[in-house]
């Protein structure tokens, strides 16, 4: 990826990466997406298009959580920004019940330091554990929730956050340690797409 510091991805680039990931992700048989907002919303919605169960034609539901690592939220100190994951939205008081017994894919746009994904997985697992403890022991095994992770881009770099090896991890594309510019962040989408085309030329030149 050489000199490239920013990489602009278009809606079509992302849609096509998600389409390419769908067969792989289908092997996990997801029945619920938990999108990490705001970057996970579009990917989760696009994934649903490709993962409809053909036998039932049912849409996979999407739940949303809001986590923030880089944004300066009111009430956060300069030290917290970029270090701590802050919850801005969660699944509601029945989070555990929503998740119980499901095959859940946690969806985000990018895995950078991995802190956000680690936080999301651990906290959702805690919600499930609380709910399981409320069940008779004989019913717990059958009601365990299976989690998987999906990200459009994974940056190949040392990670701060850790994910357990038994949680399946699906990815659209591996990239270097560049800053990805997503189309939903662009104020001028035509200019964004023009820069994305330029990045592609630079990438081809670098190979
Ligand atoms: P983490 O460092 O926890 O893996 O990523 C935290 C969040 O930072 C991501 O969910 C994403 O919203 C944001 N982020 C990290 N790297 C990038 C990037 O290259 N581009 C954009 N637009 N956001 C990023």
UniProtKB/TrEMBL annotation:
<dbReference type="InterPro" id="IPR029057">
    <property type="entry name" value="PRTase-like"/>
</dbReference>
<dbReference type="InterPro" id="IPR000836">
    <property type="entry name" value="PRTase_dom"/>
</dbReference>
<dbReference type="GO" id="GO:0032263">
    <property type="term" value="P:GMP salvage"/>
</dbReference>
<dbReference type="GO" id="GO:0032264">
    <property type="term" value="P:IMP salvage"/>
</dbReference>
<dbReference type="GO" id="GO:0004422">
    <property type="term" value="F:hypoxanthine phosphoribosyltransferase activity"/>
</dbReference>
<keyword id="KW-0328">Glycosyltransferase</keyword>
<protein>
    <submittedName>
        <fullName>Phosphoribosyltransferase-like protein</fullName>
    </submittedName>
</protein>
<dbReference type="GO" id="GO:0046100">
    <property type="term" value="P:hypoxanthine metabolic process"/>
</dbReference>
<dbReference type="GO" id="GO:0032265">
    <property type="term" value="P:XMP salvage"/>
</dbReference>
<dbReference type="GO" id="GO:0005737">
    <property type="term" value="C:cytoplasm"/>
</dbReference>
<keyword id="KW-0808">Transferase</keyword>
